[in-house]
Amino acid sequence: NEVEPFRAAVHEAVDRLVGHWRALADERLPVTRPGRAPGATVAALPALPPEQGEPLDRILQDTWDTVVPGLVHWQHPAFLAYYPTGNSPASVLAELVTAGLGVQGMMWTTGPAATELEQVVTDWLAQALGLPGHFLHTSGNGGGVIQDSASSAVLVAVVAALHRASRGRWRDLGTEGRYRLYRTDQANSCVAKAARVAGLGESTVVPTLPGTARMDPRALRERLAADRAAGGVPAIVVATVGTTGTCAVDPLADIGRICREEGVWLHVDAAYAGPAALCPEFRWLNDGVGAADSYAVNAHKWMRTGTPCNVMWTSDRRSLTEAMSVSPPYLRNEASDTGAVVDYRDWQIPLGRPMRALKLWYVMRAHGLQGLREAIRHDVRMAALLAELVAAEAGFHLVTHRLGLVVFRLDTDPRTREVARSLAGDPALLLSSSTVDGRPVLRAALGSPLLTEATVHRVWRTIRRHAAPGGPTASE
Ligand code: PLP
């Protein structure tokens, strides 16, 4: 009987998780364990799997004894590195129910309600973000799909763009070294990776406008013309709303106009900043998105949703599904043959997929759009507070501050590096370091619902302490 022990173990797991969340909220746990040597978890685990099954409660106990102490706590209020990974009780509950139902919704026929729920929630979210109607399933030509990541969304967009640019020829002949992808050096690393994986090789790097990290539309036009003159075929431009480095926003309207004129696919990567458009005051982020052929946000970054949950929309689902569809006899079915249903296997790289929509549905319902907006506004307020503290401090320089991201440096580059190194050894908080215009910077992305003004002040005192003469040994 597997079921009764499961019931007890789930209760215990929930109690443990709630205890863990409380410990994070009270900052009774560190964010990291900087002294932990690589291999510590390997050393703590047996080299071979158990021959006999073990009780679930013992496995849970070992999770907390052996695994949890070796984790970086992304849900900690003082986790300020990279961009945040969302979560909420509704999201966790949905993951449990999704796993328990165990559906594999690769096609409508293998999960009719799973597919239709995904159509509905992606239409919901498109409308909530103010995206154009041609991205909705109800438009007939467009629609949304839940991918695992922004990386997958870019790759899928590249394949659809290749299909359209080559009028289907690439399916037989491959990329023939002809097709080009355009991005700035600020685009996330997943864009260059997608170009490589799709067989496009190195992408064309479009310069940014002087003094900004935003794509220069005039330079884009020049690059497109130069590539065409050299026999290349511009296939796709990837623009970013909220770059990873500094949360810069590419000028979508100008880029979109050029892409339309040139017949080039425009994909917008709004992985982090996209959800901010739930708030009317941040709708401007998407100005010009009407000309995009595809657009993607990570609900798992800034929408209280656990990873993975990327939502991607296209206004040209025919190019997407024609590019991706392979139909051996064992996948053929009457519903697909009618063309009246959505088969999500043709909207993604893998064949199989969990019922992805339940998580987004639970999150949107449990928080409501108001709750999701409030969460974003909370983080923006916390970031504004930190930015104010940085800007007011002698010896510190605010490099950029947008939405939940604060980027700063110290007086000199060696000082910035020194403070970054010192902070990296402090388990009480985690920032990331990067470079802007070739100079080292520190990057704090504020996105935890557990973050309070008191934590921001505490984080700031810690940063100052690491920057003070004598370093972090000086007491707070
Ligand atoms: N795009 C941007 C702008 C990002 O900031 C990130 C990650 O931080 C990504 C894409 C990659 O996201 P994913 O891990 O979902 O592939």
UniProtKB/TrEMBL annotation:
Q: Which cofactor does it need?
A: pyridoxal 5'-phosphate
User: What Gene Ontology cellular component terms go with this record?
Assistant: cytoplasm
Q: Which UniProt keywords apply?
A: Aminotransferase, Decarboxylase, Lyase, Pyridoxal phosphate, Transferase
Q: Which Gene3D superfamilies match?
A: Aspartate Aminotransferase, domain 1, dopa decarboxylase, N-terminal domain, Type I PLP-dependent aspartate aminotransferase-like (Major domain)
What InterPro entries is this protein classified in? Answer: Aromatic_deC (IPR010977), PyrdxlP-dep_de-COase (IPR002129), PyrdxlP-dep_Trfase (IPR015424), PyrdxlP-dep_Trfase_major (IPR015421), PyrdxlP-dep_Trfase_small (IPR015422)
- Top-rank taxon, per record: Bacteria
Q: Which GO terms describe its biological process?
A: amino acid metabolic process; carboxylic acid metabolic process
Q: Identify its protein family.
A: Belongs to the group II decarboxylase family.
| Protein's name according to its UniProt entry | Aspartate aminotransferase family protein
State the taxonomy lineage.
Bacteria, Bacillati, Actinomycetota, Actinomycetes, Kitasatosporales
